[in-house]
Amino acid sequence: MKSEQLGKNTSVKVLGVNPLGLWLLADNEEHFLSFKEFPWFENAPVKAVFNVEKQGRSGFCWPDLDVDLTLDGIKHPDKYPLKAKH
Fold first, then answer.
1. Per-residue pLDDT tens for 36-56?
2. Which structural domain range is residue 8 located in?
3. How many domains does the chain have?
């Protein structure tokens, strides 16, 4: 039996990028990551932005950009006010 049949889909992928941010599909939920809140993606190469991997239960990694985010950080960026300079 495939893991998808045992529970919910645990995949992650970037659906698209626009001038304001990017759309991330994670566990069948869409999330918008604005460049204002997530500045690491604004000037990144498109190929690197689309290269995202799932880490554990609620983590995501962009290995080409050395960016790691949690689902809580994506849903509630105001809880995590420190941002690296881009």
1. 999 999 999 999 999 999 999
2. 3-79
3. 1
